Amino acid sequence: MISETHSGGHVHSSLGLTRNREQASTSAASMMYSETHEHSGGHVQFSPDGKLLATAAVYRLVIRDVDTLQIVQIFACMGRIDRIEWSCDSQYVMCGIYARGIAQVWSVEQPDWHCEIDEGPLGLAHVRWSPDGRHVLATSEFRLRITIWSLLDRSVSFLRFPKFDNAALSFSPDGEHMAVGHRRDGRDFVQILACEGWSIANRFDVASKDLADLHYAPRGETLCVMDGLLEPQVLLYTPAGQHLASYKMSYGPETSLGPRGISWSPAADLLAVRGFDDTVRVLHHGTWHCVAELRHESKLRASSASDPVAYVQLARSTAERLVTDASSAQESESEALDAPALPARGQELVFTAQKLPLTIPTVRPAPDKVNPHMGVGVAEWSADGRFFATRNDAMPRAVFIWEGTGLSLHSVMLQAHPARTVSWHPTRQLLAVCAGVSAVFLWSPQGCQTAPLPEDRALRVSAAAWNAAGDALVLLDKDRFCVCFIRLGPEPELLPPVGAAELTPEEETELQHILLAAEARGKAAVGTRRRDENADTQHEPRAAAARPDE
What we know:
With 550 residues, the protein is mainly β. It has three helices and 48 strands. A hairpin with a 5-residue loop joins β17 (169-171) and β18.
């Protein structure tokens, strides 16, 4: 059953200020909500083609049609499901059952076929698909090895001693290579494997103190290696192993922790580095110099360089501001996160647009927690790279929207409750924000909208995800979910991802020298590193451990 909510009565928007910026058509003609359904562990995932929805309900895998949410298939697994993942072609669904050390693969088109992968006494810590959707990578407990199971010919390959079970592993955008981080004899190194045959194509040392993660750039030309907590730096390499640059983050005297995370822009020309302070550093791919520092300040003032707008959430019933009282602009982390999850009866949360200045409430990290909330916890680029959304954990109620071209502040969403997650539309400049209340908040260059759920299916929405077409948004509560169907206006003209400003002639010359030197070093090093690079991989042409029952 699907309930329809028209924008005329239930979607509250704020378009109070006009802006001299290019705007996309994002007004919602109507929104429809499905009935709520059960899930466990937050395992709800759209298929890559956007037509099916897989959910885990304890030990059952339920496949639903996205348009109607009717059940297409139900599969019974051998234990509680800890992870689900679709294959790239939406034909198979993999379930990781870590407590029993097994993974099961189910076919949507052939319900009688399934595959069981058993890691035996080594146990199972993580499982994932390869880019071709026909190989399963299973990481054993204690990171002893990664086992690569083929669904095509039942062959098995091994990669020994990865550094992590769920990090420092990245596939190239074309799916032809895989980069894996290792550590041996107190030194970090990266192995590049060819996904065709799973043999080692290259191996090189990295200058990290304690490698924490690595990621391919969207174009596959660069690898970013992120150092650990004790060393505030990121390192850039080519897949051939040539060191392009190192960037050390400069902190204040209060902290010197390493990077918290990185985010590549869609065009791969900008790299955003998140830290444990209130700043995101943006590096340009030309010289890998920092071109902007995006600071999250609690007191925002108008600037001559930009004209940002603040969208402040109010309660319509009392017309009183909920979160901008400067006298209570600081509270504890527990107070912020334990705020009421649902508006009071009769209150409607709406946004009003105002110009700066603005004071944003801050929270103090809880000193008694093992992992206190510090630094920039969320940083996501829009699909076209024109906007960049961030959230500082010290100001959890504010979502900052930055322009991707000028790297200046565009607008701020100041909400009544902490923003849990943000999710960009796959093709448009539309951002969905979840704050643990019975509503989802939408931002676009035109303004903000509040989309409350119907009263008979109210959820405390803590996470959301779009399907590939962008016409369905799944909303997750702790143990229930529903799907919001959004009908947007005419499709705007799709533009290529926005790049950064053009390099100066001097920067172009410097970049050419760097690339030529790196290429020369790569040719000299390739011949000396091939002696026993395949010693860490083993290959068994036919193994019967993966059992497809046909």
